[in-house]
């Protein structure tokens, strides 16, 4: 394979502007200011905040919905976006379930999508509430069976395989099979559940037990190949690949993408390129995912020049670079500690109206932590806030940890306030970091308020956050506040049993 040379005219994203100083800094005022939030985005914020701020479980949610959300306001996209925000913000799953039921009740005004159902199912299974998940699926089967997709089955089985037993998962599969006729697609969903959880012993056991009942196809074999790849065993990937060929299955682009990804993640970039050449020889055309994987692999291997060349090859191959390809090249720059070029690329994305997502911000924050320190991170952080971007929890934790390690709990508290204002309930790890930093700086009152906000929004505290605040309140002699936290925790447990590791309320134990 001949990689295309890097033309001078295409270096716009990688050349450093003469106006930049040698000590690279990000302007706190964006070159491309974002427009104010639309009315639609404002409604999403309002409803998400309404749900998260509602005192739970003191008052029911349905009357609140009837009072503040007229059915005519509901739309397919609005419901999807609200549920998406509740999901990514790790909100109380029962609240999201109540909102979905409200939407389902008024679905004569709009078309409720399978995406909304899948998000709700994902929220319930993530919190291990499989009883509610079954209840939801039964209701959908009766009222709107078209929403029961293979993806929804995949979500359910994947979480059951993760949190339940092998027997529980098979029993659930057989229970569903009684309701409808299953074929190879449903069989593939079951296999994927075990493979995505890296449970390859179980996956092969299911394959041996059930393959006579179904007719495995190339997708079946690719799912098993993916499982071996996820386990990080390249030898197992190649052995199964040859077994797949011996069985008479023809490799397709997905097969090659899985093998390329397996090599790239282990730093074997040359083997990834070899597979790309093999694809081209057998007329299996690479996709944008193939090239993105190779760009990422070049970055892992420290081969920045080939990462750039692969990116430039995308239009030559009649492919269109998407946000994933840009993020992969950005990650390659960051790995090479070339933060200036990464920032140029980020600005170029904005100029071309290619949005920034959580991967974009997460990657840039990691790079700026090393190169520009607190000043660079803060400038990008404020730029993100100006665009009303709501980061996911992985990005939130990176920022919170960085602020707190740099003895700036005020910035952590500012981030916390922004998320709460936008209707999010930050993840428990972010709370642990913030509470620890606040108490270390003698700001235990604010740590207490953050804990109270989490409980008011129907989320359990982690043991670490509870014990740190407990110690502060005991030392300050504020037993009334400690009693209030304990009462809120126990009240929440009535409707939302804590998962393993969450605070249980400890006033009944000796201090």
From TrEMBL:
UniProt xrefs under Gene3D superfamilies: Tetratricopeptide repeat domain
Entry keyword annotation includes Repeat: yes
A Pfam family this chain is assigned to: PPR_2
Matching PROSITE patterns: PPR
Keywords noted in UniProt: Repeat
Top-rank taxon: Eukaryota
PPR repeats: 217-251, 252-286, 287-321, 322-356, 357-391, 392-426
NCBIfam families to which the protein is assigned, alphabetical: PPR (TIGR00756)
Family, similarity comment: Belongs to the PPR family. P subfamily.
Protein name: Pentatricopeptide repeat-containing protein
Species of origin: Protea cynaroides
């Amino acid at each position: 394979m001949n990689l295309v040379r890097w033309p001078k005219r295409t270096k716009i994203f990688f050349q450093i502007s003469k106006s930049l100083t040698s000590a690279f800094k990000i302007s706190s005022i964006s070159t491309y200011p974002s427009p104010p939030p639309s009315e639609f985005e404002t409604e999403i914020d309002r409803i998400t905040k309404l749900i998260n701020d509602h005192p739970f479980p003191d008052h029911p949610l349905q009357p609140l919905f009837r009072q503040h959300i007229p059915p005519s306001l509901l739309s397919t996209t609005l419901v999807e976006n609200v549920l998406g925000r509740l999901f990514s913000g790790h909100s109380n799953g029962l609240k999201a379930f109540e909102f979905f039921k409200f939407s389902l009740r008024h679905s004569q005004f709009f078309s409720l999508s399978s995406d909304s159902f899948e998000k709700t199912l994902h929220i319930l299974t993530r919190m291990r509430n499989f009883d509610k998940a079954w209840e939801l699926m039964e209701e959908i089967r009766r009222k709107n069976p078209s929403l029961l997709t293979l993806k929804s089955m995949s979500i359910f089985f994947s979480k059951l395989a993760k949190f339940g037993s092998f027997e529980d998962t098979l029993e659930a599969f057989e229970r569903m099979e009684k309701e409808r006729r299953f074929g190879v697609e449903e069989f593939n969903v079951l296999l994927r559940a075990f493979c995505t959880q890296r449970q390859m012993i179980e996956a092969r056991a299911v394959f041996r037990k059930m393959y006579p009942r179904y007719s495995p196809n190339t997708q079946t074999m690719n799912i098993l190949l993916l499982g071996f790849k996820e386990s990080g065993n390249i030898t197992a990937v190649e052995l199964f690949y040859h077994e797949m060929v011996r069985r008479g299955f023809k490799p397709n682009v997905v097969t090659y993408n899985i093998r390329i990804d397996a090599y790239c993640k282990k730093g074997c970039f040359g083997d990834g390129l070899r597979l790309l050449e093999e694809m081209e020889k057998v007329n299996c055309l690479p996709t944008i995912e193939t090239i993105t994987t190779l760009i990422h692999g070049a970055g892992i291997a420290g081969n920045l020049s080939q990462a750039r060349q692969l990116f430039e090859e995308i239009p030559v191959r009649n492919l269109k670079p998407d946000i994933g390809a840009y993020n992969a090249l950005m990650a390659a720059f960051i790995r090479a500690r070339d933060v200036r070029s990464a920032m140029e690329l980020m600005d170029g994305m904005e100029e071309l109206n290619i949005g920034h997502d959580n991967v974009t911000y997460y990657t840039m924050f990691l790079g700026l932590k090393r190169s520009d320190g607190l000043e660079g991170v803060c400038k990008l952080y404020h730029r993100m806030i100006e665009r009303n971007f709501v980061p996911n929890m992985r990005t939130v934790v990176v920022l919170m940890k960085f602020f707190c390690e740099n003895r700036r709990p005020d910035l952590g508290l500012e981030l916390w306030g922004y998320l709460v204002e936008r209707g999010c309930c930050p993840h428990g790890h972010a709370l642990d970091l913030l509470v620890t930093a606040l108490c270390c700086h003698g700001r235990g009152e604010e740590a207490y308020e953050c804990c109270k906000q989490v409980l008011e929004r129907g989320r359990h505290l982690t043991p670490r956050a509870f014990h740190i605040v407990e110690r502060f309140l005991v030392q300050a002699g504020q037993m009334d506040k400690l009693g209030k936290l304990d009462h809120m925790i126990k009240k929440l447990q009535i409707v939302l049993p804590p998962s393993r590791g969450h605070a249980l309320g400890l006033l009944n134990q000796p201090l």
